[in-house]
């Protein structure tokens, strides 16, 4: 069944918002305005936006260090995201976490993680909690291709399968774990086959096809509520370097250009025009709006106060 | 007062809390029908069923992380790690996730979980099943660390740990599991607050600061010194490493002017260094009659042979000698 027009708008707009957010954040680096590091998801927008948008507010997610799309998909406030990025008091973590640790419990985000695979057991426990409370909601656990070689992946998927937990494990396969290509880090072409060793269903999708990702997540949600966990692999590509200090000497420019042709935003735009769901003018307006919203977020962040050392022990213990 | 074992006291603390609060779940390896590797959870599976007493695969990392995730979403999990040596397998979720989440998320969420694990040597279990790793976890802001030395303390402290809204590492002592002591009747809902040291024996000539299995050993030595009219020794059981009740330690040092710190854990980098610093950095320094002394385990892994094993931790002879040197 075709998606409703407002769903298309939501998906397209959130991808634009993510792209604008990342481009603005990257620019802040070149201007020397950022203290720490950041990991950009340009080129991967469809993954987190497609999956998170298919969830309800009460569904839970754990995010990755490259997960701005996952948070925006879950309706996080980009003002507070940008403020956290700049380490401000008004940020999601009051400036103490930075963008590797943004979280918004009010929209169901249990936080991004700086440890590869670190969120996998956490999400598994959240799903255990949902099952124990007989909740109708599920958990989505995001991680990358690098994390599937961590012990936490193996232990957690096995545990979730044994306990039949309502969780979708979503792998954003962007082809690289920092500098190592997936073909060097594992001897399989399709990560989803790993699901079989846990007695779990595994599927692989085109990670740049936001419409399919959204539809398959809706189905997966119903599936995991009835049957227990599932592994969903989304093949995509990381356009930028691993982090701000990456000279990218390990890959060819042609490869990057080839994937840029498969841009998830461009692809959705062509679909929307071809199916006459939106006009070129309407889509341009969305682009303008997204840019405007991110500009406002930056103003909010830049005008926000710095956190104070007097409050350093706040929130260490509950 | 009735007498029960340290293991029974821990069982009662968990069971009584679980009867009152159905958000408490209990996870661990062989804690179900088997009743736990040391029999601590005997009867709990039968009483609370498989939904609340969850036997897990051998996956310390995943169960500790899952407990943190469950704690962040409304439950109050208790995790049993079979031997505290296996904390090494659970450090990532404990140290990077559970301890830091509330702080790094700007106060969003909390992680009310208890990780129980038995430590200590003396059972012939050798190097990988006998360590005392409390200094590792006491070094991590965001965690609380408890080591009870008696059945009474074990029950009262564990109840507080379960009710606490933070991750608490509750380190039990294998050799104390079968030791009996007075504990109020079931239903007498006493608790012992975290962060309050206990003066197990009052004295005026010298202070021993210790915890865990060494409390009993130091008490019996103190009694011998008293019986011989040689010295009146005060024995303080810190009970919780984090938070640490510095005031009680400092006041005792000011009173006696002589301090010996004793623990079973390897001396170098051990928590004893922190206890010594607590005294010498305080005003108690000006009351000291001698340098503060510490006595920890030898800087070696725990060996298998029983004679060797007994000699690598502070023995009665070594503690007695240290006391005489201070006097």
Backbone CA Rg of chain A: 19 Å
How many distinct beta strands of chain A?
7
The CATH class of the largest domain in chain B is identified as Alpha Beta
Annotation, overall tally of beta strands of chain B = 14
Helix percentage range of chain A: 40-55%
- Stretches of chain A where pLDDT falls below 50 for ≥5 residues? none
Structural class of chain A: alpha/beta
Please write the CATH class name of chain A: Alpha Beta
**CATH T-level fold name of chain A:** Rossmann fold
CATH superfamily of chain A: Thiamin diphosphate (ThDP)-binding fold, Pyr/PP domains
Uncertain regions spanning at least 5 consecutive residues of chain B: none
Kindly state the mean pLDDT of chain A as a whole number? 96
Q: How many structural domains can be distinguished in the coordinates of chain A? A: 1
* Biggest interface, residues from each chain: A-B, 45 and 43 residues
Structure, described:
- The complex is a heterodimer of chains A (318) and B (327).
- In chain A, 44% of the residues lie in helices and 10% in strands.
- Chain A is of the alpha/beta class and 318 residues long.
- In chain A, α1 (5-30) packs across α2 (45-53), α1 runs antiparallel to α10 (264-274) and α4 crosses α11.
- The longest helix of chain A has 26 residues, at 5-30.
- The model of chain A has no long low-confidence stretch (mean pLDDT 96).
- The model of chain B has no long low-confidence stretch (mean pLDDT 98).
- Chain B has 2 domains: 3-182, Thiamin diphosphate (ThDP)-binding fold, Pyr/PP domains (Rossmann fold, 3-Layer(aba) Sandwich), CATH 3.40.50.970; 198-326, 3-Layer(aba) Sandwich (Rossmann fold).
- In chain B, β10 (206-210), α8 and β11 (233-237) form a beta-alpha-beta unit.
- The interface between A and B is large, with 45 and 43 residues.
What's a concise summary of this model?
The complex is a heterodimer of chains A (318) and B (327). Chain A has 318 residues and is of the alpha/beta class. Chain A has helices at residues 5-30, 45-53, 68-73, 78-85, 119-132, 151-163, 182-185, 210-227, 253-261, 264-274, 280-302, and strands spanning 60-62, 139-144, 167-173, 176-177, 180-181, 201-206, 230-235.
């Amino acid at each position: 069944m075709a998606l409703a027009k407002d769903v298309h708008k939501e998906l397209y707009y959130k991808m634009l918002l993510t792209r604008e957010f990342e481009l603005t954040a990257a620019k802040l680096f070149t201007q020397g305005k950022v203290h720490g590091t950041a990991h950009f998801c340009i080129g991967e927008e469809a993954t987190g936006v497609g999956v998170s948008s298919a969830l309800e507010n009460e569904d839970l997610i754990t995010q990755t260090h490259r997960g701005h799309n996952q948070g925006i998909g879950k309706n996080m406030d980009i003002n507070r995201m940008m403020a956290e990025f700049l380490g401000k008091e008004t940020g999601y973590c009051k400036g103490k976490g930075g963008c590797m640790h943004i979280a918004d419990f009010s929209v169901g985000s249990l936080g991004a993680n700086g440890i590869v695979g670190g969120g996998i057991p956490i999400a598994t426990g959240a799903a255990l909690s949902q099952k124990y409370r007989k909740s109708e909601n599920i958990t989505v656990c995001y991680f990358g291709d690098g994390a599937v070689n961590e012990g936490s992946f193996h232990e957690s998927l096995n545990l979730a399968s044994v306990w039949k937990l309502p969780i979708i494990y979503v792998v954003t396969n962007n082809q690289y774990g920092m500098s190592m290509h997936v073909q060097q880090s594992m001897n399989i072409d399709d990560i989803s086959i790993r699901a079989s060793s846990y007695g779990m269903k595994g599927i692989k999708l085109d990670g740049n096809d936001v419409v399919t990702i959204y539809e398959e997540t809706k189905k997966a949600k119903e599936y995991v509520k009835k049957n227990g966990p599932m592994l969903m692999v989304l093949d995509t590509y990381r356009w930028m370097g691993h982090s701000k200090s990456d000279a990218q000497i390990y890959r060819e420019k042609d490869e990057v250009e080839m994937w840029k042709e498969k841009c998830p935003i461009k692809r959705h735009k062509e679909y929307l025009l071809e199916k006459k769901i939106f006009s070129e003018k309407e889509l341009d307006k969305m682009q303008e709006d997204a840019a405007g919203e991110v500009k406002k977020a930056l103003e909010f962040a830049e005008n926000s106060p710095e956190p104070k050392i007097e409050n350093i022990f706040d929130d260490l213990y509950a | 007062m009735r007498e029960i074992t340290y293991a029974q006291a821990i069982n009662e603390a968990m069971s009584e809390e679980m009867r009152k609060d159905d958000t408490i779940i209990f996870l661990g390896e062989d804690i179900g029908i088997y009743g736990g590797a040391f029999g601590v959870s005997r009867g709990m599976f039968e009483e609370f069923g498989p939904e609340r007493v969850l036997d897990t695969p051998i996956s310390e990392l995943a169960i500790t992380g899952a407990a943190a995730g469950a704690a962040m979403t409304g439950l109050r999990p208790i995790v049993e790690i079979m031997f505290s040596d296996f904390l090494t397998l659970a450090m990532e979720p404990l140290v990077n996730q559970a301890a830091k989440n509330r702080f790094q998320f700007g106060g969003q969420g909390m992680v009310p979980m208890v990780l129980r694990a038995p430590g200590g040597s003396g059972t012939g279990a050798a190097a990988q099943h006998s360590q005392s790793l409390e200094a590792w976890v006491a070094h991590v802001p965001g965690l609380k660390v408890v080591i009870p030395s008696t059945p009474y303390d074990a029950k009262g402290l564990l109840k507080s740990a379960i009710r606490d809204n933070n991750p608490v590492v509750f380190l039990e002592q294998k050799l104390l599991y079968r030791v009996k002591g007075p504990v109020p009747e079931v239903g007498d809902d006493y608790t012992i607050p975290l962060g309050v040291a206990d003066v197990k024996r009052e004295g005026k000539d010298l202070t021993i600061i210790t915890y865990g299995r060494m409390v009993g050993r130091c008490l019996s030595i103190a009694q011998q010194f008293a019986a011989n009219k040689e010295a009146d020794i005060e024995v303080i059981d810190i009970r919780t490493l984090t938070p640490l009740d510095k005031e009680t330690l400092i006041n005792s040092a000011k009173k006696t002017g002589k301090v010996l710190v004793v623990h079973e854990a390897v001396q170098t980098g051990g928590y004893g260094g922190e206890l010594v610093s607590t005294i010498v950095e305080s005003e108690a320094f000006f009351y000291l009659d001698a340098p503060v002394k510490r006595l920890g385990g030898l800087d070696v892994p725990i060996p298998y042979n029983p004679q060797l094993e007994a000699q690598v931790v502070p023995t009665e002879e070594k503690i007695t000698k240290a006391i005489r040197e201070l006097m």
